[in-house]
Amino acid sequence: MSATYDIAVIGGGVVGTAIARELSRFQLKSVLLEARMELGDESSKGNSALMCSGVDVPAGTLERQLVQRGYARYLAEAPDMGLPIRKVGAITLAWSEEQQSILEHDLAAARRDGFTVELLDSAEIHHRWPQFGPGIRCGLWAPDEAIVDPFSGTWGFQSEDYGNDDYGAAMSGVAVITPGSSANHYTIKVLAQEVISQREDGQSHLLVARENCTGENTNGQLSVNCTLAEPVDNYQPDAFVIQAVDHDHLGGVLTTSSGASVNFNRVR
Predict the structure, then answer these.
(1) What integer is the mean pLDDT of 51-56?
(2) Helix/strand/coil (H/E/C) assignment for every residue in the chain
(3) pLDDT at res. 89
(4) In this model, does residue 30 exceed pLDDT 50?
(5) Taking the model in full, what pTM does it have?
(6) b (16+ CB within 10 A) / e for 107-120
(7) How much is the mean pLDDT over the chain?
(8) Calpha distance 261→242 (Å, rounded)
């Protein structure tokens, strides 16, 4: 069976899922293609988890502009999507006069581009980080450098948000569906990933569960009930009802969480 799409995104890592999410906001027929059974199972799962503000990217380049835009957008959208982020800062050290001259040049360029940066002298550096050895002349401190969860982004970008005034949850999963022992019955194995974010304090955590499910097709609706393949703290088995929205999408409700929507891309 063949299908025609306006755009095909190849690769279901953090970049591919982010692009697919953005394309879903337009009147386009798009498809996300991933060779492996799970999203984010290649480069994305082994990245460094660093989120750069762009301060260490060469000044005056398109790359710096794009990194700045991506950083600002992640900061704006991550809380509502339940994506964890922690600003830890970063410092670049100079041990020689030549290196200090480079950092002073980088400081001026970064400030021109709107970055929050500071040049710390040797005394201040050793006051903050007494474990550093001798010989440091100065350091360029960038407090906005951050770390993120390499996995939550991939799942969050291809999930729908739900919850209430106290928390938000981004949930997604991979399901393998096979015919059951009788007509209109199916056996389903689900890998569900759910990021719970407390709206008040921004704290979030990731729950991962493997579920064994059964589905019954009644009047075009598939009613699915699951049990956990192994116990997971604070995770309840899922149940949902879905039906065809159009030729390429399924949608419905998660009946174990009031008002929660469920959306799937149909995979052939």
Answers:
(1) 91
(2) CCCCCCEEEECCCHHHHHHHHHHCCCCCCEEEECCCCCCCCCHHHHCCCEECCCCCCCCCCHHHHHHHHHHHHHHHHHHHHCCCEEECCEEEEECCHHHHHHHHHHHHHHHHCCCCCEEEEHHHHHHHCCCCCCCCCEEEEECCCEEECHHHHHHHHCCEEEECCCEEEEEEEEEEEEECCCCCEEEEEEEEEEEEEECCCCCEEEEEEEEEEEEEEECCEEEEEEEECCCCCCCCCCEEEEEECCCCEEEEEECCCCCEEEEEECCC
(3) 95
(4) yes
(5) 0.55
(6) bebbeeeebebebb
(7) 77
(8) 10
Q: In this predicted model, what pLDDT tens digit does every residue of 97-124 receive, in sequence order?
A: 999 999 999 999 999 999 999 999 999 9
Unique residue bearing structure tokens 């450098």: 145
Q: Work out the pLDDT band at 254, boundaries 50, 70, 90.
A: low
Specify whether the CB–CB gap between 266 and 253 falls below 8 A: no
d(CA 40, CA 246): 27
